[in-house]
Amino acid sequence: MESVGVDIEPSQVEQSLDQNPDGDYRVAKDGKVPVDDHTADLTLSCIVLLESPSFHQLKESVAELARITKPGGKVIVVTNTEESYQNNWASFECDFPENQYLQSGGQVKVLVKGAEAVFYDYYWNDEDYRKAFKEADLNLLTHSKPLADGSEPFEWVTEMEKPNWSIYVLEKAK
After folding, report:
1. What is the mean pLDDT of the chain?
2. Is 123 exposed, middle or buried (0-12, 13-18, 19+ CB in 10 A)?
3. How far apart are CA 112 and CA 117, in angstroms?
4. Domain boundaries, the chain
5. pTM of the model
């Protein structure tokens, strides 16, 4: 397997195939990634786990990442930080009163600038992520919360002072 793109939304998979007909794109159903057990050397979960409405669902999603990853393989998880939901950003507004007192597992409001689309994520704290990783036999290698450095061709709002993204690099137990 070279690489596989997976999404829960069939139209996203169709759009990916339209842009790259030779790509391998698949639709995930019922929380299951359509990839065989222990076949991925590297698994990337980007802005997915924050859609888990319960800790049980968060653990199931993390376990699914572990299931498809080979022993000794790496898993990269990109998700939001606590600061994400209490500040405004170049692309998002999140500084809403209902986001002021975050609790792990709580729903948070996000506005996409330009599209003026409002959607809701679930905030999970670092402790809960680490607990879910440990239960899935994923060992934490590094955890970073990068900041923009100002060299990017964007006009940043908060990105240079506060981290919007939390990046976990994990290794599946051998």
Report:
1. 95
2. buried
3. 5
4. 1-35, 36-172
5. 0.94
